[in-house]
Amino acid sequence: MKVQAAGLYAERLAGHAFATLAFDAAHQGESEGEPRLLEDPFHRVEDIKAAAPAPLQQIRPDTAPDHREQAGTLARHTFDGWEYYRTPAAANHFVLRSIDLLAQFTAFDLVHLIAPRPLLMIAGTEAITGYFSREAIDRAAEPKRLAWIDGATHVDLYDNQKHLPAVIAKPAAFFTTHLDQAQ
Is 5-182 CATH 3.40.50.1820? Predict the structure, then answer.
């Protein structure tokens, strides 16, 4: 939700002169959709496509963005660490149907199509979900990078102030390099 990691990352990356976008996906936060608190990764993909700025939607698969503003920054996640739901920042519950939807979804089958746009994945060295990032990077084409945050769990990367400077520094440096090369 935009009041969680997406809004925080968007605000911090905007401070590095990136165009950013944070929004509440359907069923979450201030968005509409019933049942509330449903985690539906299939619908989340459609939300992202609908929220993307028009120039980003028009990028052809065989070309990289030629302007930093076109690249945008879409913060999203399709898998939440279960421990996060026990923190005060979370709603502390979700719709049980979410489990089935999450189990059916794979974000990896088409990850190779992201190229030639740069792909950066950030994971904590203590994250039980780190293998997802490794698998995605293994399947992705260049340019790609998997950046690790020492001592961080999956949930630490949401909004833990201890790790936030390191987390923000990774995309700021990566995209500055790769977007400057594309121009």
Answer: yes
